[in-house]
TrEMBL record:
Keyword check for Manganese: no
Keyword annotations from UniProtKB, A to Z: Iron, Iron-sulfur, Metal-binding, Pyridoxal phosphate, Transferase
PANTHER family in alphabetical order: CYSTEINE DESULFURASE, CYSTEINE DESULFURYLASE FAMILY MEMBER
Pfam families: Aminotran_5 (PF00266)
Catalytic activity from the UniProt record: (sulfur carrier)-H + L-cysteine = (sulfur carrier)-SH + L-alanine
InterPro entries assigned to the protein according to its UniProt record, in alphabetical order: Aminotrans_V_dom, Cysteine_dSase, PyrdxlP-dep_Trfase, PyrdxlP-dep_Trfase_major, PyrdxlP-dep_Trfase_small
Name the UniProt record assigns to this protein: Cysteine desulfurase IscS
Family indicated by similarity: Belongs to the class-V pyridoxal-phosphate-dependent aminotransferase family. NifS/IscS subfamily.
Organism the protein comes from: Thalassobacillus devorans
Cofactor: pyridoxal 5'-phosphate
């Protein structure tokens, strides 16, 4: 079976698994222990993983807060900022093409007295910086815009967006779950970006671990926010709870490997994508259209509309040989809000399929599409 649902999740790399097993077996210490080797070793492992992830992001190690994944990072951030800064304003801006882990939190905040503006997106799911600029108000406390869209692969221009937010003195958060480990990015160089969420399982690391990156303020302290969890005070008090050492170690190792192979992976993913587009175009000619853009995108993600075919029927038929999906794994039961936001009607949404490659997909395997 050819697995082409890597935007939903990726298999753990053998090197990652091997490292994790050590911390699931003999090295079982609690990093908060301090006085004996088991604890000291676990603490060192978490430190090393923080270093590896920081290197991939080009962030300061102190700015990285480990969480259980991007859903948690988004929740900590959106609710934490909303509560901490509510006396300054109750207006938040996001887009119509966000992941449900942002949109649902925004809806929850709306039910609790906050006002949310949902920016329109263009035909590929990107927001317009000018529209953002016009939407920012005196009482806006946060802007949250996805970096790479999980259904279409399109990239928002986070640098331009950060520039707008910096100019207006408003915090910017980005859900970078789909881009970390896939495109080169430098947190340090995007000063107007205050918060970033990411997850390990999208880059061949384990499920159940992610990070929230928080910018240090001018006094060297992390931008304050109200924590969701209260407890032992781990992770600067922002994310209390005993460290999931094996998962954190896995995330660090996955980040290290992704960082070392970024350029090579991008080249391979682009070739895979080009090849699939070529085969599909040859085979289906007038009966397909591409929902994804060809430029400014995450390499290896293609969203295709098979005109006149129902995506669920097609996916079930393909499933013994090709694993793909209709879009977001988290809300596949509902018709995609992202595809509706880019202007597709419900029929067109139900004809659309996302194919997402991994850097470890073999080029020869793509030929399977010729035999469909
Ligand atoms: N944000 C985006 C853009 C995603 O693609 C996903 C995963 O599908 C998430 C958030 C949720 O991440 P996690 O599974 O780590 O909670």
């Amino acid at each position: 079976m050819l697995y082409l649902d890597n935007s939903a999740t990726t298999p753990i790399l053998p090197e990652v698994k091997d490292k994790m097993i050590t911390y699931l077996s003999e090295e079982y210490g609690n990093p908060s222990g301090k006085y004996y080797d088991l604890a000291i070793n676990a603490e060192a492992a978490v430190k090393e993983a923080r270093k590896q992830l920081s290197k991939l992001l080009n962030a300061d190690e102190k700015e990285v807060i480990f969480t259980s994944g991007a859903t948690e990072s988004n929740n900590i951030l959106l609710k934490g900022v909303a509560h901490y800064y509510s006396s300054q304003g109750k207006h938040i801006i996001t887009s119509k093409a966000e992941h449900s882990a942002v949109l649902e939190v925004c809806e929850y905040l709306e039910e609790n007295g906050f006002e949310v503006t949902y920016l329109d997106v263009d035909q590929f799911g990107r927001i317009n910086s000018e529209e953002l600029k016009n939407a920012i108000r005196q009482d806006t406390i946060l802007v949250s815009i996805i970096w790479g869209n999980n259904e279409l692969g399109s990239l928002n221009d986070i640098e331009a967006i950060a520039h707008v937010c910096e100019g207006k003195g408003v915090f910017l958060h980005t859900d970078a779950t789909q881009v970390v480990g896939k495109i080169p990015l430098s947190w340090k160089d995007i000063k107007g970006l205050s918060f970033l969420s990411c997850s390990a399982h999208k880059m061949h690391g384990p499920k159940g671990v992610g990070a929230l990156v928080i910018r240090k303020d001018r006094y060297g302290k992390l931008i304050p926010l109200t924590p969701l969890f209260h407890g032992g005070g781990q992770e600067e008090g922002i994310r209390s709870g005993t460290y999931s050492v094996h998962n954190i170690v896995g995330m660090g190792e996955a980040a290290r490997i992704a960082n070392n192979n970024l350029e090579k992976n991008t080249k391979h993913l682009t070739l895979l994508e080009d090849r699939l587009i070529e085969i599909l175009t040859e085979k289906f000619s007038d009966n397909i259209t591409f929902n994804s853009d060809r430029t400014n995108k995450i390499p290896g993600v293609i969203n295709v509309r098979f005109i006149g075919l129902n995506n669920e029927v097609l996916l079930k038929k393909l499933s013994p040989i090709i694993a793909a999906s209709t879009g977001s794994a988290c809300s596949s039961a509902k018709p995609s809000h992202v595809l509706q936001a880019i202007g597709l009607d419900l029929k067109e949404v139900r004809e659309s399929i996302r194919f997402s490659f991994s850097p470890y997909t073999n080029m020869e395997d793509v030929n399977i599409f010729k035999e469909l």
